[in-house]
Design a protein that fits this description.
The complex is a heterodimer of chains A (about 450) and B (about 600). Chain A is mainly alpha-helical and about 450 residues long. Chain A has helices spanning about 5-20, 25-45, 50-55, 65-75, 90-95, 105-145, 145-150, 160-165, 170-175, 180-195, 200-215, 220-230, 235-265, 265-280, 290-295, 300-315, 315-320, 325-340, 345-355, 370-395, 400-430, 440. Chain B has about 600 residues and is of the alpha/beta class. Chain B folds into two domains: about 1-275, 3-Layer(aba) Sandwich (Aminopeptidase); about 300-315 and about 375-445 and about 480-600, no CATH class. Chain B has helices at about 1-15, 70-80, 100-110, 165-175, 195-210, 250-265, 285-315, 320-340, 340-350, 355-365, 380-400, 410-460, 470-475, 485-505, 510-525, 530-545, 545-555, 560-575, 580-600, and strands at about 20-25, 30-40, 50-60, 90-95, 120, 130-140, 150, 180, 230-235, 275-280, 285. The chains are: A mainly alpha (about 450), B alpha/beta (about 600).
Chain lengths: ~450, ~600
Amino acid sequence: MAAVHQTQTASMASLSKSETSSKPASRAGTVFALAALVRLVLFELPGLADLLASRVEISTPITSFKRLSEGVFLFRNGVPPYSGGVVHQAPLLLGLFYPIISIPVLVRLLYIASDLAIGSMLSRMAELKASQMSRKQQHEKENTTGSMAEMEGSTWSGLTVASLYLFNPFTVASCVGQSTILFSNVAVVASLWMGMKGNKSIAMFGVALAAYLSLYPIMLAIPVALLLTQHIDGESKKRAIQLSVGFLATWTVALLGLSWVLVGSWDFMSSVYGTILSVRDLTPNLGLLWYFFIEMFDHFRPFFLVVFQLHLFIFAAPVSIKLRHHPLFVAYLLTAIIGTLKAYTSVGDASLYLGLLPLYSEVFKYMRYSFLIGNLFLYSSCLAPIFWYLWVYLGSGNANFYYAVGLVYGIGEIILMVDSTYALLRRDFDLQNPPTKPEDWSREVLQK
Amino acid sequence: MYRRADAVRAELSNIGLKAATQNYTLTTSVDTKSGVNTYAVFNAPRADGTEALVLSAPWISKDNQLNTNGIALILSLAKNFRRHSHYARDTIFVITDGDSEGIQAWLRAYHGIERTAQDNHEESLHVRSGAIQAALNLDFAGTGDYNAIGIFFEGVNGGLPNLDLINTVNEIGVHRGWTVVLHDKIIPATDNLTRKYLNALHNMLYMMKYQASCHPSANHGFFHKYMIDAITLYGVNQAEGSYYRFSVHQIGPLVEQVHRSLNNILEHLHQSFFFYLLSDITRYTSIGLYMPPVIILGVSFILKALSMWGVSGDLATDMKAVEQLAERESKEAAGSGGGEAAAAVAASNNNNNNTNNSGSSATAFASLPFSRRPRPMRVAVSVIGLSLVAGLASFQLFTSTFGFAGETLLVKLVASVGVCTVMVFAGVSSAMIRQQLLLKQREGKDKGKEKKAKEAAASSLSSSSSSSSSSSSTLPPPPAPAPDWVLLKTFILAMAALEVTTLSALNFSLAVSIGVLIAVPYLMFQPTHNHVLRILQLGTLMAMSPPGLVLWASYLLEMDVSAILHWILQGYEVMGTWLLPTICFVYWPLNLASIVMILLPVS
């Protein structure tokens, strides 16, 4: 995929620069309308939405729409929703669906609108990033010889980025399967967008909301803070960080307090975050942990639980330090790490980081394993339903089969992360050390 | 039909079992089938009825005779079971109507997923028992004697029962002095090694034929869908050869003992003997042995795809040109060192270019093309997409009824071939048009380049130390994008690998057949300038396409084309086999894409 657009982008970019001002609005309208139409049609196909909603790759215990409906039903009938072991979604989500859950059309429209919102925010982020980059290049051109600026390949347009998100099969399946991970994704993308625009309060609200919905995005506070402070230095930077942390704490407390007001007890804390952290529900999924904890003796459980959860969080530090000049890439990498290593992973998580990756389309030409990664994703998405069928319906396979697919998927995700990080670092290296001597041209560069 | 079902029901009731009948109607796009099943439950005296075994017999045997002995066996076994008290699992006796619709209707109703539409309905069951653990289907045609017991075990879509079930029957049969064989052919024992090997090969291919066709070899095959191990015991009646003959009275004890063995096991058969190939009743090839060949087949596609992907992007770096450029520049540097004044003039002339020498090489670097040539994937992606759409369209054509006069399967085949031809035409022509446009663009560019080069040459003639603008004109031209067919072939091979390997997990034999069929052509074929070769390749691909294969089959099996189509469609609509979907969604699109690939321009 990476190399596809190499030629096209150049021409497209020039096209969009010259004659865009009138056309893109209508073109964007077409793309978004088409995306909405595809989802509407898929929602209407008999049985498809139910089928997708029941797939373990799409609905996990913490994002399943069925469990959410159960929670809303219990809530509506005055039964404390979190006292049983079924509902693991945040109270405000129950509150959001409380008025509309009995009207399927509204629920579907909400899902479609959220997906389109992510698409539109991604496209704006791409445009914002492009303009920031060209400003930076202008700046560098004035100061230095200018070779760096010319080396810069043009990036993909916002619309391309948006349509790559909107027509990603993972995104569509996750949306039609009504996985509630979508709302967490909206919050994440909104916080990144606002971070780019420098709006501390809303950006931190996005982080707080995403963390409130699915806990792990709390790590994204770091890249968002980096985004907010990337153009300021010294004392004001310190102040900005303090302010952001303050906002984050305030918003988190506010959201939790509001939840308490809504359900009237703190039960939800253990039911929502306890389940995420202690991996109590071992329904199989594409993740890497369920099988471990099924096989494990009970007295090892706490130790490995701590190790696995720490393992996930620990990446925040090295990634943010090494790539601090690319806060958006840090955000992409952290969402990918969350999507790979969290206990209840689903294709909805993949749709988020696969949506963020095209923002860095300039690194694609440095990627070495794009074909392999594409194949790994393809194989795991084909094999997962087949092995599930062999295991659960025919009984001739077993849990190992399905877990093997999870491993293949995990390998695909990890190679993607490693390769894209390599590509970014390699590009940085070439930018900082442009090959000036003829010997340099023979070094393993993709760009002669 | 109703009378015979009712008579058997009355007989089973007389024995003292809870017996009932079940009506069903099944409508397909071709015709409507209806019938009556009879069934009875024997409640085991020692159990709570949570688990059950099934003994079933169809009215019509595999070889289209009445299954007289089979049904007689059911009745006499029912009578026999009543007299004993050692049974720990209920036994359900089922006598099914029709070809395969009866057993399916009964299984559906038993598992509570009966349909209630007017034209597609199964009556709910009145008598039930617990979860079915295993099933034996009895197929003993006629009233005569038999030479041997044959075991049929292949289920729908290549599903297999647990191997222990087959082993149990064999152990008991051999113990009682019976000949137990696979399928319906007695192969005389021999000491000749080659002969032995060929016999084993024959058995294995026979089994793989059933698996690859996705059709079950007998009625037991539908139990596998519900996670029930089941086989068919078949009375082999081979006229030639002087084999010992057994009467139906001797079969009774054998079935009773197999049934008792199943009754005695503590839990559902679950050891990992679900993936095997049988070359003999006592020999099996396990998954560990038979998977490597198909994996190697898949890997051959993957490796070729990877290498083609590499080829599509890599352009042998023209190091010579780079070196020449470097030399030239160093000379220039020396020259400008000698005549500084001239260099200064040149520099001032080219104000907008970079002034110093390091700057000029940096510019050269910046404007140098990628060592990767671009991979325009539009054609490849759209051809693959179009061919999938064409596959989907033909599937819809086959499975829906339009109701116009003269609507036959043959017409539908022709129509879908038409759809596919249109798709191929669209793919090829759009690729051609794109190619022409690209060529024109490049020509235009080249002309511009030549002009520039001429000017540069003129300027270098006029002044000995040329400006840096001439160095940019000595650059190699930007690499031509990879030809469309390379990328298309990469995609086809990647998809072939994906399909063969994933299919092999579901239905090994089908995957192997497809893999072996497509391996050589898909790996070797590519567009050439040689017209004869191109037509030859095209012909081979057409012969390999589903319509071609149907024609081949009708020629080799001396069957009517529409009969073959009917067989495939009935398999899909009645039995739920995946042969038709596999052909339409997996096999055909690849074939179409390959045909397009052959027709694309070479470069």
